Every structure is written in structure tokens, then in C-alpha cells.
């Protein structure tokens, strides 16, 4: 994801369980930070089947209709994180289209000449 964002000229900051240089921890995410970053991409497996009630510790109270949450998970089609973001008015998209595009690209690499 970082590579794709870089290619698109979109600046980003990683969020993880612990703070490190140039990276936030989930506990660092203040209202100010959440308002600064309108695109949130969940690259964790939290929320995948069968543990569908799990999700990252993102402060969802700070989400609004200005946010786009992209959850790379595609099973289930609507994760708990996506459901909660939608309740806050955010747009939420799952990873199904990305999976399909990856499959199409792999098919063309290995079968087309």
C-alpha cells in the first residue's frame, strides 16, 4: 500500500501497536491527527473470518463523512470496522476489488504473451 500511495503522490504515516520514528501508535491517534488524515487503510488481518468482531484500535469517534476507510479485508464483505465507520458517516470500502485486480494482473503476467 505504501508503494501505491507513493506512486500516486499521496503522503502517508503508518499506525501500529507501538510508536516508532515516523509512525503513530493507536494510542497516539488524537482528534487532530484523525482530522488531518482523511484516508484510513486497514492493512491488518483484524476482522477476518472467523474473528469478525475484531478491529484495530482506531478512535472511531473522530471519524466523519470526510473520511474514507479502506479495509483490505474481503471476508467478511463488511467488517466490524467498516460497519462502525459507516455509522459515523464515513465511506467504507473492502478489499474485494483489489483482490480481483491482483488476480487479473497475475493472469495477464502468466498467460498473456
| Helical stretch tally | 4
- Distance between the terminal alpha carbons, to the nearest Å? 28 Å
- Mean pLDDT metric: 94
- The strand count comes to 5
What would you call the shape?
A: globular
Biggest sheet overview? 3 strands, parallel
**Strand fraction:** 15-25%
Entry keywords:
single chain, 113 residues, alpha/beta, three-stranded parallel β-sheet, 4 helices
Secondary-structure blueprint of this entry?
Elements: H1 2-7, E1 14-16, E2 23-25, H2 31-36, E3 39-42, E4 68-71, H3 80-87, E5 91-93, H4 96-111
Parallel strand pairs: 1-2, 3-4, 4-5
Question: How would you summarize this macromolecular structure in one to three sentences?
Answer:
The protein is of the alpha/beta class.
What would you note in describing this structure?
The protein has 113 residues and is of the alpha/beta class. It contains four helices and five strands, in the order H-E-E-H-E-E-H-E-H. It has helices at 2-7, 31-36, 80-87, 96-111, and strands spanning 14-16, 23-25, 39-42, 68-71, 91-93. A three-stranded parallel beta sheet has the order 3-4-5, with helices on one face. A two-stranded parallel sheet has the order 1-2. It is globular. The protein starts with a helix and ends with a helix.
Amino acid at each position: 500500500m505504501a508503494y501505491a500511495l507513493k506512486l500516486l503522490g499521496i503522503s502517508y504515516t503508518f499506525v501500529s501497536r507501538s510508536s516508532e520514528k515516523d509512525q503513530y501508535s493507536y494510542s497516539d491517534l488524537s482528534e487532530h491527527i484523525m482530522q488531518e488524515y482523511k484516508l484510513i487503510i486497514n492493512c491488518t488481518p483484524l476482522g477476518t473470518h472467523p474473528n469478525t468482531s475484531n478491529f484495530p484500535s482506531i478512535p472511531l469517534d473522530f471519524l466523519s463523512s470526510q473520511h474514507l476507510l479502506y479495509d483490505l479485508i474481503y471476508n467478511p464483505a463488511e467488517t466490524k470496522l467498516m460497519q462502525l465507520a459507516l455509522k459515523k458517516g464515513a465511506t467504507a470500502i473492502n478489499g474485494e476489488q483489489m483482490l480481483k485486480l491482483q488476480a487479473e494482473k497475475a493472469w495477464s503476467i502468466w498467460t498473456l504473451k
